[in-house]
Amino acid sequence: MKRILALVGLTTLIGCAATATLPGAQNVEIVIEAPDRGKCRFIAEVVGSQGNWLTGDITSNKNLVVGARNDLRNEAHKLGGNVVYIQDMKNTNAQGSRGTTNTTAIGKAYACSA
After folding, report:
1. Domain containing 12 — which CATH number?
2. N or C: which terminus of the chain carries fewer CB neighbours within 10 A?
3. Domain range holding 108?
């Protein structure tokens, strides 16, 4: 029982914070217009998300969105990208939840030069 309570407490603490960016990923720019193909090379589609059925109700909507965007930056950075053209952002409400339980961001990662 103590282990279960400790796990629930840890999940609560982790669930409240937005996903952090990896070192260097904070420099990945998220844009809403397609980047210049003359200066940018498409790498791959990337997906970032935050929240689930357990942590979604105890994480603020702001942290769900910021966490999903940071996860998107992290994924692009791992692939060598420095720009993400965001294509879709979806919020999910689980049945019986008090609000948004998950936010997912989908985009295209690019490596762009100045």
Report:
1. 3.30.110.70
2. C
3. 2-112
Residue 93: other Cβ atoms inside 10 A: 13
Tens-digit pLDDT profile for residues 68-90: 999 999 999 999 999 999 987 77
Q: 16-45, pLDDT tens digit by residue?
A: 889 999 999 999 999 999 999 999 999 999
Rg, C-alpha atoms of the chain: 16
Q: How far is CA 71 from CA 4, 49, 63, 85, 104, in A?
A: 28, 6, 12, 14, 9
Domain count, the chain: 1
